Amino acid sequence: MTEVAGDRLVDGYTLVVFDLDGVIYLIDRPIPGAVEAVGRLHAAGRAVAYATNNASRRSSEVADLLTGMGVPAEPQEVLTSAAAAAELLRDRFPAGAPVLVVGAEALRAEIRAAGLTPVARADESPVAVVQGYGPQVCWADLAEASVAIRAGATWVATNTDRTLPSGRGPLPGNGSLVAALRHALDREPDVVVGKPEAALFATAARRAGAGRTLVVGDRLDTDIEGARRAGLDSLLVLTGVSDVPELLAAPESRRPTYVAMNLAGLFDPAAVARVPGEPDTGGWSAARVDGGLELRGAGRPLDALVALCAAAWSAPVDAADIRPATPEAQRALAALGLSA
Fold first, then answer.
1. How many CB atoms sit inside 10 A of residue 136's CB?
2. What is the pLDDT of residues 142-187, one digit of tens each?
3. How far is CA 128 from CA 84, 98, 157, 296, in A?
4. pLDDT tens digits for range 239-248
5. Which part of the chain is the GCN5-related N-acetyltransferase-like domain (predicted)?
6. Is residue 134 part of a domain?
7. Is 19 annotated as catalytic?
8. Can you give the pLDDT at residue 340?
9. Which of 19, 161, 221, 223 is catalytic?
10. Which pLDDT does position 323 carry in this prediction?
């Protein structure tokens, strides 16, 4: 059995930084077990922070949302890409400078709180365009941003998440809206603030001072890559966007330190595994046969995943080409969402 050295994963870290959507809650409902997990951390006096690319809520609103779910949270524990973008613009431009905001009211409020002036039209001569997710963003907003950027405004994106989680599955995120402008302008944003850039995680770790930091996320392309860029350990939980096929295909820059089905992995050594392990792990073996991967053995599905990661990361393989050699392997693949 592949277990984390020591007793519990969480005992090796001073600070645990959580992503929110897909880890703590899905839209506005807590993910099963999340409230209890954070409660255990608080009860043990463990430092906790929340880093989110969601720019549609202010830090205080996120803290209120968490508290309403049963997770006591203070605004200073919440790091949003909206607040980080506003701070960046505050440091670059004089007080009162006009900034064209494409996004939710929360992003406008952060710009205002930073001492800048949020505007909605390019003819108001904005010095910058800040673009974040907002459910009401429309073509007219993108058109104003396009005109302003072509006129020389600095283009800041709060994040470039392609999708965001929902109860109906992944939906277009801010990255999809950024892509529309990128295509129209034939250029990249001047600055991307949120994950996978390291700023949010680095800020959280700096606030915690001495000690090790663990980042917990559900997305390889933001949470895990951002943690790696910040030089921090990470735990991928399979409760949100990234699934097992994506994990098996992950490039080195997006590979987590640990993987668990959910937040129980923080406390239960049997519910978490370090990756990559060995192709022969915990009673499982994964070997290349006829151009694909063959899994055989018995044991925890999580250990089977460790073996599959080791084999797939040494030489890429399509998840569709992973085959069970035994009934136990077939059940493990089904548990991992890899059954045909």
1. 9
2. 999 999 999 999 999 999 988 887 778 889 999 999 999 999 999 9
3. 15, 7, 11, 56
4. 998 999 999 9
5. 282-338
6. yes
7. yes
8. 54
9. 19
10. 92
DSSP state of 162: S
Task: Determine the longest span between alpha carbons in the chain, in angstroms.
Answer: 67
Q: Are 103 and 134 in contact (CB under 8 A)?
A: yes
The parent domain of residue 292 ranges over 276-335
In a shared domain, residues 95 and 184:
yes
What is the Cβ-side half-sphere exposure of residue 111, based on CA atoms within 13 angstroms?
A: 31
Segment 187-201, tens digit of pLDDT: 999 999 999 988 888
List Cα–Cα distances, 328 to 283, 300, 307, in angstroms.
Answer: 11, 10, 14
H-state helical runs in the chain:
34-43, 59-68, 81-92, 105-113, 139-150, 174-185, 199-208, 225-229, 244-248, 301-314, 327-335
211 pLDDT above the threshold of 90: no
Residue 303 CA from chain centroid, whole number: 24
Annotated catalytic residue: which of 7, 21, 233, 321?
21
Catalytic, 186? Answer no
